[in-house]
Amino acid sequence: MEVLATGVQRDERPLLERAFAPRHDVRCLETVLTADTLPLAAGYEAVSTSVNAVLDAPVLEALVRGGTRLITQRSTGYNNIDLAHAERLGLTVARVARYSPYAVAEFAWALAMALNRRVVRAASRTRDFDFRLDGLLGRDFHGRTAGVIGTGRIGSAFAAIARGFGMRLLGWDISVSPRCQEMGMEYVELDRLLRESDLISLHVPLMPSTHHLLGARRLGELKDDAIVVNTGRGALIDADALVDTLRAGRLGGVGLDVYEEEAGVFFYDKSLEVMTDDTLARLLTFTNVLVTSHQAYFTVDAVEEIVTATVRNVDDYLAGRITECTLIPKSP
Hints:
Layout: E1 2-5, H1 13-20, E2 25-28, E3 46-49, H2 57-65, E4 70-73, H3 83-88, E5 92-94, H4 101-116, H5 119-127, E6 145-149, H6 153-164, E7 168-172, H7 178-182, E8 186-187, H8 190-196, E9 199-202, H9 216-219, E10 227-230, H10 239-247, E11 253-256, H11 278-283, E12 289-291, H12 300-319, E13 326-328
Parallel strand pairs: 1-2, 1-3, 3-4, 4-5, 6-7, 6-9, 7-8, 9-10, 10-11, 11-12
Antiparallel strand pairs: 5-13
Helix pairs in contact: 1-12, 4-6
GO molecular function: D-lactate dehydrogenase (NAD+) activity; NAD binding
Domain D-isomer specific 2-hydroxyacid dehydrogenase NAD-binding: 110-296
Keywords: NAD, Oxidoreductase
């Protein structure tokens, strides 16, 4: 079978091609699949998409008209896919159920450490031969409190690192992680976690119940010098409310690897264009905000797991198998 893979990063391409080579042909495109790029998918029974693909009802209908029967997304998240409509159309949809949790957890800590110790500002200064320490005062994480919102595989990995720093652990989730409990984590109500934590990291999926989980009211609960890191989904935080919080001179730092309106922006070179997203533009003006372009997952280890699962999803589709990666099974 020939598979079309869209939204493929340059470093991802050789890994993807090597994984598919023994059994299937794959055509890799950097272009993200949207309504504007749909003609590229015509004639492909199987299409592999990135998390930034826009797979709403009109796009799904056009894919079916073009002959697509399988969508296998190279991510764990799938809130960009209209699953109900895909099922009505008879599409098979799969995702990557899991990959290295350490990739994301370690990157969340990279953001936290860079913010706390003002690493980006310090590096920028020394490039200009300015070796002053003014404005670079950080804090020990040891002895302070880490609030982990979502204690699944990634959240648990983040908590383990926090424990290594000697931090007190608070957790919030719909279910308790035995691993986190063994590390001494105390599960508390979300508002208490926000009030008491010096470092907060978000690791919950995006659902109606978690949309804008940190809105104006809850952002107001945070300590004035708290550091917030989001490597989960952009819409877990109300970005406009976050801007207002920062403008009020609150928060020690904010690390965002995801952003609510990142589609069409992240993964692209926008350096020669006018930034039309006022909220993102304002966030980037704050010296205590660090924004990266959805790269937390981007390690060789994680990407190899992702592409291996993607190839397996194609094999499972052809064999009619249902696995933990299956979102909508193949029609009989």
